[in-house]
Protein backbone atom coordinates (compact mmCIF):
# COMPACT_ATOMS: atom_id res chain seq x y z
CA UNK A 1 0.00 0.00 0.00
CA UNK A 2 1.25 3.50 -0.83
CA UNK A 3 2.43 5.65 2.10
CA UNK A 4 0.76 8.71 0.55
CA UNK A 5 -2.55 10.03 1.81
CA UNK A 6 -4.59 10.47 -1.34
CA UNK A 7 -8.06 10.90 -2.67
CA UNK A 8 -9.77 7.78 -4.03
CA UNK A 9 -9.13 6.77 -7.64
CA UNK A 10 -12.62 7.99 -8.48
CA UNK A 11 -12.00 11.44 -7.04
CA UNK A 12 -11.88 14.25 -9.56
CA UNK A 13 -8.98 16.67 -9.53
CA UNK A 14 -11.35 19.56 -8.85
CA UNK A 15 -14.50 20.23 -6.81
CA UNK A 16 -15.37 17.16 -4.72
CA UNK A 17 -16.83 17.76 -1.26
CA UNK A 18 -16.87 14.14 -0.14
CA UNK A 19 -13.26 13.59 -1.13
CA UNK A 20 -12.18 16.86 0.51
CA UNK A 21 -13.94 15.93 3.75
CA UNK A 22 -12.27 12.52 3.74
CA UNK A 23 -8.81 14.00 3.15
CA UNK A 24 -9.20 16.41 6.08
CA UNK A 25 -10.48 13.61 8.34
CA UNK A 26 -7.47 11.43 7.44
CA UNK A 27 -5.09 14.28 8.18
CA UNK A 28 -6.65 14.65 11.65
CA UNK A 29 -6.00 11.02 12.58
CA UNK A 30 -4.74 9.99 15.06
CA UNK A 31 -4.78 13.53 16.44
CA UNK A 32 -5.08 17.09 15.19
CA UNK A 33 -3.66 18.86 18.22
CA UNK A 34 -0.34 18.58 20.01
CA UNK A 35 -0.13 19.11 23.75
CA UNK A 36 -0.16 22.81 24.61
CA UNK A 37 1.48 24.71 27.42
CA UNK A 38 -0.08 27.13 29.86
CA UNK A 39 -2.37 29.74 28.33
CA UNK A 40 -1.44 33.32 29.18
CA UNK A 41 -4.43 34.98 30.75
CA UNK A 42 -5.23 37.56 33.39
CA UNK A 43 -6.13 41.23 33.08
CA UNK A 44 -6.99 42.25 29.52
CA UNK A 45 -7.90 45.83 28.71
CA UNK A 46 -10.56 46.62 26.12
CA UNK A 47 -12.49 49.58 24.80
CA UNK A 48 -16.22 49.40 24.14
CA UNK A 49 -18.52 51.35 21.84
CA UNK A 50 -22.29 51.17 22.17
CA UNK A 51 -24.01 50.15 18.94
CA UNK A 52 -26.51 52.70 17.66
CA UNK A 53 -29.74 51.17 16.45
CA UNK A 54 -31.85 52.91 13.83
CA UNK A 55 -34.95 54.77 15.06
CA UNK A 56 -37.79 52.42 16.02
CA UNK A 57 -35.55 49.38 15.57
CA UNK A 58 -33.19 47.18 17.57
CA UNK A 59 -30.86 46.78 14.57
CA UNK A 60 -28.11 49.05 13.26
CA UNK A 61 -28.04 50.35 9.70
CA UNK A 62 -25.47 47.73 8.65
CA UNK A 63 -27.48 44.92 10.27
CA UNK A 64 -30.75 46.01 8.71
CA UNK A 65 -29.15 46.36 5.28
CA UNK A 66 -27.61 42.88 5.43
CA UNK A 67 -30.90 41.42 6.65
CA UNK A 68 -32.87 42.91 3.77
CA UNK A 69 -30.35 42.08 1.07
CA UNK A 70 -29.13 38.63 2.02
CA UNK A 71 -31.28 37.02 4.72
CA UNK A 72 -34.75 36.68 3.23
CA UNK A 73 -37.11 35.32 4.52
CA UNK A 74 -35.62 36.04 7.97
CA UNK A 75 -37.48 38.81 9.80
CA UNK A 76 -35.98 41.49 12.04
CA UNK A 77 -37.76 40.10 15.10
CA UNK A 78 -35.90 36.80 14.62
CA UNK A 79 -32.55 38.55 15.04
CA UNK A 80 -30.76 39.43 18.28
CA UNK A 81 -28.21 42.26 18.13
CA UNK A 82 -25.18 42.97 20.27
CA UNK A 83 -25.29 46.07 22.44
CA UNK A 84 -21.55 46.86 22.19
CA UNK A 85 -18.57 46.53 19.87
CA UNK A 86 -15.27 45.94 21.70
CA UNK A 87 -11.60 46.24 20.79
CA UNK A 88 -8.63 44.64 22.55
CA UNK A 89 -5.17 43.16 21.96
CA UNK A 90 -4.71 39.41 22.31
CA UNK A 91 -1.71 37.58 23.81
CA UNK A 92 -0.11 37.40 20.35
CA UNK A 93 -0.14 41.21 20.16
CA UNK A 94 -2.81 41.27 17.45
CA UNK A 95 -5.74 43.76 17.69
CA UNK A 96 -9.21 42.22 17.77
CA UNK A 97 -12.79 43.37 17.59
CA UNK A 98 -15.80 41.53 18.91
CA UNK A 99 -19.38 42.04 20.06
CA UNK A 100 -21.23 41.42 23.27
CA UNK A 101 -24.47 42.16 25.07
CA UNK A 102 -24.30 43.98 28.36
CA UNK A 103 -27.21 41.88 29.66
CA UNK A 104 -25.57 38.58 28.68
CA UNK A 105 -22.06 37.20 29.39
CA UNK A 106 -20.39 40.49 28.47
CA UNK A 107 -16.91 40.95 26.95
CA UNK A 108 -15.43 37.82 28.55
CA UNK A 109 -16.57 35.34 25.89
CA UNK A 110 -15.02 37.07 22.83
CA UNK A 111 -11.72 37.50 24.69
CA UNK A 112 -11.54 33.95 26.04
CA UNK A 113 -12.60 32.53 22.68
CA UNK A 114 -9.77 34.34 20.92
CA UNK A 115 -7.20 33.02 23.40
CA UNK A 116 -8.57 29.49 22.99
CA UNK A 117 -8.34 29.79 19.20
CA UNK A 118 -4.74 31.03 19.42
CA UNK A 119 -3.87 28.10 21.68
CA UNK A 120 -5.36 25.58 19.26
CA UNK A 121 -3.61 27.22 16.31
CA UNK A 122 -0.28 26.77 18.08
CA UNK A 123 -1.23 23.20 18.90
CA UNK A 124 -1.89 22.49 15.22
CA UNK A 125 1.38 24.12 14.16
CA UNK A 126 3.34 22.15 16.77
CA UNK A 127 1.94 18.73 15.84
CA UNK A 128 4.77 16.88 14.00
CA UNK A 129 2.50 13.99 13.05
CA UNK A 130 0.10 16.33 11.28
CA UNK A 131 2.97 17.98 9.40
CA UNK A 132 4.20 14.57 8.26
CA UNK A 133 0.75 13.53 7.05
CA UNK A 134 0.36 16.79 5.11
CA UNK A 135 3.77 16.21 3.50
CA UNK A 136 2.55 12.82 2.26
CA UNK A 137 -0.50 14.22 0.47
CA UNK A 138 -0.34 13.47 -3.24
CA UNK A 139 -1.07 15.85 -6.10
CA UNK A 140 -4.63 14.57 -6.50
CA UNK A 141 -5.47 15.32 -2.87
CA UNK A 142 -4.01 18.81 -3.14
CA UNK A 143 -6.03 19.40 -6.32
CA UNK A 144 -9.26 18.34 -4.59
CA UNK A 145 -8.61 20.69 -1.66
CA UNK A 146 -7.69 23.54 -4.00
CA UNK A 147 -10.79 22.96 -6.14
CA UNK A 148 -13.23 22.57 -3.25
CA UNK A 149 -12.15 24.86 -0.43
CA UNK A 150 -11.54 28.60 -0.13
CA UNK A 151 -8.18 28.45 1.63
CA UNK A 152 -6.66 25.43 -0.19
CA UNK A 153 -3.63 24.70 2.03
CA UNK A 154 -4.42 22.05 4.70
CA UNK A 155 -3.05 24.07 7.64
CA UNK A 156 -5.03 27.14 6.53
CA UNK A 157 -8.21 25.08 6.18
CA UNK A 158 -7.81 23.61 9.66
CA UNK A 159 -7.00 26.99 11.23
CA UNK A 160 -10.08 28.57 9.64
CA UNK A 161 -12.15 25.65 10.93
CA UNK A 162 -10.97 26.25 14.48
CA UNK A 163 -11.71 29.96 14.14
CA UNK A 164 -15.19 29.21 12.79
CA UNK A 165 -15.99 27.06 15.84
CA UNK A 166 -14.78 29.89 18.07
CA UNK A 167 -16.88 32.36 16.11
CA UNK A 168 -19.98 30.22 16.71
CA UNK A 169 -19.30 30.17 20.44
CA UNK A 170 -18.83 33.95 20.71
CA UNK A 171 -21.83 34.68 18.50
CA UNK A 172 -24.22 32.47 20.47
CA UNK A 173 -23.14 34.25 23.65
CA UNK A 174 -25.40 37.09 22.45
CA UNK A 175 -28.37 34.84 23.30
CA UNK A 176 -26.95 33.30 26.49
CA UNK A 177 -29.91 34.66 28.53
CA UNK A 178 -32.13 32.26 26.53
CA UNK A 179 -30.25 29.32 28.12
CA UNK A 180 -30.06 27.98 31.69
CA UNK A 181 -26.26 28.49 31.72
CA UNK A 182 -24.94 31.32 33.86
CA UNK A 183 -21.14 31.19 33.54
CA UNK A 184 -19.00 31.30 30.40
CA UNK A 185 -17.62 27.81 30.99
CA UNK A 186 -21.05 26.32 31.69
CA UNK A 187 -22.38 28.05 28.58
CA UNK A 188 -19.66 26.59 26.32
CA UNK A 189 -20.14 23.09 27.72
CA UNK A 190 -23.90 23.40 27.36
CA UNK A 191 -23.67 24.40 23.69
CA UNK A 192 -21.30 21.49 23.00
CA UNK A 193 -23.41 18.90 24.82
CA UNK A 194 -26.59 20.18 23.15
CA UNK A 195 -25.11 19.80 19.65
CA UNK A 196 -25.32 23.51 18.79
CA UNK A 197 -21.92 23.51 17.05
CA UNK A 198 -23.14 20.71 14.79
CA UNK A 199 -26.36 22.62 14.16
CA UNK A 200 -24.32 25.62 12.98
CA UNK A 201 -22.24 23.40 10.68
CA UNK A 202 -25.24 21.66 9.12
CA UNK A 203 -28.01 24.27 9.12
CA UNK A 204 -26.19 27.55 8.54
CA UNK A 205 -24.24 28.49 5.43
CA UNK A 206 -20.73 29.89 5.66
CA UNK A 207 -21.33 33.48 4.59
CA UNK A 208 -24.36 33.85 6.87
CA UNK A 209 -22.31 32.90 9.91
CA UNK A 210 -19.29 35.00 8.97
CA UNK A 211 -21.26 38.11 7.98
CA UNK A 212 -23.73 38.11 10.86
CA UNK A 213 -20.86 37.54 13.31
CA UNK A 214 -18.95 40.52 11.92
CA UNK A 215 -22.08 42.66 12.31
CA UNK A 216 -22.83 41.58 15.88
CA UNK A 217 -26.11 39.81 15.17
CA UNK A 218 -27.51 36.27 15.35
CA UNK A 219 -30.71 35.05 13.60
CA UNK A 220 -31.74 32.18 15.90
CA UNK A 221 -33.69 31.58 19.10
CA UNK A 222 -32.89 28.86 21.65
CA UNK A 223 -35.33 26.66 23.55
CA UNK A 224 -34.45 24.74 26.74
CA UNK A 225 -35.44 21.11 27.27
CA UNK A 226 -36.30 19.36 30.52
CA UNK A 227 -32.72 18.02 30.68
CA UNK A 228 -31.31 21.61 30.49
CA UNK A 229 -30.06 21.05 26.95
CA UNK A 230 -30.81 23.75 24.39
CA UNK A 231 -31.90 23.56 20.78
CA UNK A 232 -32.95 25.92 18.00
CA UNK A 233 -36.62 26.79 17.91
CA UNK A 234 -38.64 25.22 15.10
CA UNK A 235 -39.03 28.68 13.55
CA UNK A 236 -35.24 29.18 13.57
CA UNK A 237 -34.69 25.81 11.90
CA UNK A 238 -37.23 26.61 9.19
CA UNK A 239 -35.77 30.08 8.58
CA UNK A 240 -32.19 28.80 8.38
CA UNK A 241 -33.28 26.12 5.92
CA UNK A 242 -35.10 28.67 3.76
CA UNK A 243 -32.11 31.04 3.72
CA UNK A 244 -29.74 28.20 2.82
CA UNK A 245 -32.00 26.91 0.03
CA UNK A 246 -32.33 30.43 -1.38
CA UNK A 247 -28.55 30.87 -1.36
CA UNK A 248 -27.97 27.56 -3.17
CA UNK A 249 -30.63 28.45 -5.74
CA UNK A 250 -29.06 31.88 -6.34
CA UNK A 251 -25.65 30.29 -6.89
CA UNK A 252 -27.06 27.77 -9.34
CA UNK A 253 -28.85 30.49 -11.30
CA UNK A 254 -25.65 32.50 -11.72
CA UNK A 255 -23.68 29.44 -12.85
CA UNK A 256 -26.40 28.16 -15.17
CA UNK A 257 -26.66 31.55 -16.88
CA UNK A 258 -22.90 31.82 -17.28
CA UNK A 259 -22.49 28.30 -18.67
CA UNK A 260 -25.62 27.84 -20.80
CA UNK A 261 -26.27 31.39 -22.04
CA UNK A 262 -22.74 32.78 -22.15
CA UNK A 263 -20.91 29.58 -22.98
CA UNK A 264 -18.31 30.00 -20.23
CA UNK A 265 -16.38 27.16 -18.68
CA UNK A 266 -16.84 26.56 -14.95
CA UNK A 267 -13.50 28.23 -13.98
CA UNK A 268 -14.26 31.18 -16.27
CA UNK A 269 -17.75 31.53 -14.81
CA UNK A 270 -16.41 31.54 -11.25
CA UNK A 271 -13.77 34.11 -12.19
CA UNK A 272 -16.19 36.43 -14.01
CA UNK A 273 -18.99 36.24 -11.43
CA UNK A 274 -16.85 36.14 -8.31
CA UNK A 275 -18.65 39.12 -6.76
CA UNK A 276 -22.07 37.56 -7.43
CA UNK A 277 -21.08 34.16 -6.11
CA UNK A 278 -18.93 35.45 -3.26
CA UNK A 279 -17.86 32.60 -0.95
CA UNK A 280 -20.41 30.24 -2.49
CA UNK A 281 -18.57 30.19 -5.82
CA UNK A 282 -17.46 26.62 -5.28
CA UNK A 283 -19.21 25.54 -2.11
CA UNK A 284 -22.72 25.94 -3.54
CA UNK A 285 -22.53 26.85 -7.21
CA UNK A 286 -21.09 23.45 -8.13
CA UNK A 287 -23.28 21.32 -5.89
CA UNK A 288 -25.26 18.61 -7.69
CA UNK A 289 -28.96 19.41 -7.89
CA UNK A 290 -30.83 18.35 -4.78
CA UNK A 291 -27.77 17.98 -2.58
CA UNK A 292 -27.86 19.83 0.73
CA UNK A 293 -24.38 20.89 1.83
CA UNK A 294 -22.91 20.74 5.30
CA UNK A 295 -19.55 21.79 6.68
CA UNK A 296 -16.76 19.42 5.59
CA UNK A 297 -15.70 18.97 9.22
CA UNK A 298 -19.20 17.75 10.18
CA UNK A 299 -19.13 14.80 7.76
CA UNK A 300 -18.96 11.51 9.70
CA UNK A 301 -16.29 8.99 8.74
CA UNK A 302 -15.72 5.40 9.82
CA UNK A 303 -12.41 4.29 11.34
CA UNK A 304 -12.65 0.58 12.03
CA UNK A 305 -15.72 -0.04 14.17
CA UNK A 306 -16.00 3.59 15.28
CA UNK A 307 -17.40 6.63 13.52
CA UNK A 308 -16.35 10.22 14.17
CA UNK A 309 -16.36 13.71 12.72
CA UNK A 310 -13.50 16.18 12.70
CA UNK A 311 -15.82 18.85 14.10
CA UNK A 312 -16.33 16.90 17.34
CA UNK A 313 -12.60 16.80 18.02
CA UNK A 314 -12.23 20.54 17.34
CA UNK A 315 -15.20 21.48 19.53
CA UNK A 316 -14.13 19.25 22.43
CA UNK A 317 -10.67 20.81 22.55
CA UNK A 318 -11.99 24.34 22.00
CA UNK A 319 -14.45 24.07 24.89
CA UNK A 320 -11.79 22.54 27.14
CA UNK A 321 -9.32 25.37 26.53
CA UNK A 322 -12.00 28.07 26.55
CA UNK A 323 -13.30 26.95 29.94
CA UNK A 324 -9.79 27.12 31.39
CA UNK A 325 -9.14 30.58 29.92
CA UNK A 326 -12.52 32.03 30.89
CA UNK A 327 -11.99 31.06 34.53
CA UNK A 328 -8.74 33.07 34.69
CA UNK A 329 -9.45 36.03 32.41
CA UNK A 330 -10.21 39.51 33.78
CA UNK A 331 -11.66 42.00 31.25
CA UNK A 332 -11.05 45.64 32.21
CA UNK A 333 -12.66 48.47 30.23
CA UNK A 334 -10.52 51.53 29.40
CA UNK A 335 -11.41 54.75 27.52
CA UNK A 336 -10.94 54.86 23.74
CA UNK A 337 -8.48 57.31 22.21
CA UNK A 338 -10.01 59.91 19.89
CA UNK A 339 -8.74 60.65 16.36
CA UNK A 340 -8.61 63.92 14.42
CA UNK A 341 -10.14 64.04 10.94
CA UNK A 342 -8.41 67.20 9.74
CA UNK A 343 -5.14 67.83 7.92
CA UNK A 344 -3.16 65.53 5.66
CA UNK A 345 -2.79 61.85 6.44
CA UNK A 346 0.31 61.10 8.50
CA UNK A 347 2.65 58.29 7.45
CA UNK A 348 1.61 56.12 10.39
CA UNK A 349 -2.06 56.55 9.44
CA UNK A 350 -1.45 54.29 6.45
CA UNK A 351 -1.34 51.30 8.79
CA UNK A 352 -4.44 49.77 10.34
CA UNK A 353 -5.79 46.36 11.34
CA UNK A 354 -8.92 44.36 10.51
CA UNK A 355 -9.21 41.72 13.26
CA UNK A 356 -12.13 39.88 11.64
CA UNK A 357 -10.18 39.36 8.40
CA UNK A 358 -10.00 35.58 8.66
CA UNK A 359 -9.47 34.11 5.20
CA UNK A 360 -8.33 34.85 1.66
CA UNK A 361 -11.84 35.83 0.67
CA UNK A 362 -11.75 38.56 3.33
CA UNK A 363 -8.46 39.81 1.88
CA UNK A 364 -10.02 40.10 -1.58
CA UNK A 365 -13.16 41.78 -0.27
CA UNK A 366 -11.36 44.36 1.87
CA UNK A 367 -8.89 45.16 -0.89
CA UNK A 368 -11.78 45.59 -3.30
CA UNK A 369 -13.59 48.05 -1.01
CA UNK A 370 -10.49 50.21 -0.64
CA UNK A 371 -9.61 50.15 -4.32
CA UNK A 372 -13.19 51.07 -5.27
CA UNK A 373 -12.57 54.28 -3.28
CA UNK A 374 -9.34 54.97 -5.20
CA UNK A 375 -7.26 54.05 -2.16
CA UNK A 376 -4.11 52.19 -3.16
CA UNK A 377 -3.49 49.07 -1.10
CA UNK A 378 0.21 48.63 -0.40
CA UNK A 379 0.07 45.43 1.64
CA UNK A 380 -2.42 43.09 3.31
CA UNK A 381 -1.09 40.50 5.78
CA UNK A 382 -3.66 37.90 6.80
CA UNK A 383 -1.72 36.50 9.77
CA UNK A 384 -1.19 39.81 11.59
CA UNK A 385 -4.47 41.33 10.24
CA UNK A 386 -2.33 44.32 9.19
CA UNK A 387 -3.12 46.50 6.17
CA UNK A 388 -1.08 49.31 4.65
CA UNK A 389 -3.02 51.69 2.40
CA UNK A 390 -2.41 55.18 1.01
CA UNK A 391 -5.18 57.39 2.41
CA UNK A 392 -5.44 60.96 1.17
CA UNK A 393 -6.50 62.42 4.52
CA UNK A 394 -7.81 61.39 7.95
CA UNK A 395 -11.32 62.05 6.63
CA UNK A 396 -10.69 59.74 3.67
CA UNK A 397 -9.44 57.12 6.14
CA UNK A 398 -12.53 57.52 8.33
CA UNK A 399 -14.84 57.11 5.32
CA UNK A 400 -12.96 54.00 4.25
CA UNK A 401 -13.40 52.58 7.75
CA UNK A 402 -17.14 53.27 7.57
CA UNK A 403 -17.33 51.54 4.18
CA UNK A 404 -15.57 48.50 5.64
CA UNK A 405 -17.96 48.47 8.60
CA UNK A 406 -20.93 48.61 6.22
CA UNK A 407 -19.41 45.52 4.61
CA UNK A 408 -19.29 43.73 7.94
CA UNK A 409 -15.65 44.32 8.90
CA UNK A 410 -14.39 46.22 11.93
CA UNK A 411 -11.11 48.08 11.27
CA UNK A 412 -8.92 49.19 14.15
CA UNK A 413 -7.04 52.44 13.65
CA UNK A 414 -4.03 51.66 15.79
CA UNK A 415 -2.29 48.68 17.28
CA UNK A 416 -2.29 49.16 21.06
CA UNK A 417 0.88 48.24 22.91
CA UNK A 418 0.41 44.74 24.38
CA UNK A 419 3.25 45.41 26.82
CA UNK A 420 1.64 48.54 28.27
CA UNK A 421 1.23 48.00 32.03
CA UNK A 422 -2.12 46.43 32.80
CA UNK A 423 -3.00 45.59 29.19
CA UNK A 424 -2.34 41.87 29.51
CA UNK A 425 -0.88 40.23 32.54
UniProtKB/TrEMBL annotation:
PROSITE patterns associated with the record: HMA_1
Keyword Metal-binding: yes
Residue segments, region Disordered: 406-425
A GO molecular-function descriptor: metal ion binding
Signal in keyword set: no
Keywords, comma-separated and alphabetical: Metal-binding
Coiled-coil residue spans: none
Name the UniProt record assigns to this protein: Copper chaperone
Lineage, highest ranks first: Bacteria, Bacillati, Actinomycetota, Actinomycetes, Mycobacteriales
Amino acid sequence: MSTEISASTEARTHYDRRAAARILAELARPGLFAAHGAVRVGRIEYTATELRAEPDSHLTFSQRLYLERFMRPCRADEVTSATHRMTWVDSAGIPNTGFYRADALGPLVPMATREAVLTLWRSIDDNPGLSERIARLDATAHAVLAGTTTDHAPIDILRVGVESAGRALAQHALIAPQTPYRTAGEFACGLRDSGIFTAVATRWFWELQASTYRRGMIPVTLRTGTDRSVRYSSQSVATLRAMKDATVADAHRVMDRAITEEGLSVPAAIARYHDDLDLISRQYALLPAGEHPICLAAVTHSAGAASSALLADVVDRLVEVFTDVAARCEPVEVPARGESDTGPAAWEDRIFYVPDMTCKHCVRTIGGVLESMDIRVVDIDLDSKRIVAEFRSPRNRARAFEALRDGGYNPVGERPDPMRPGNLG
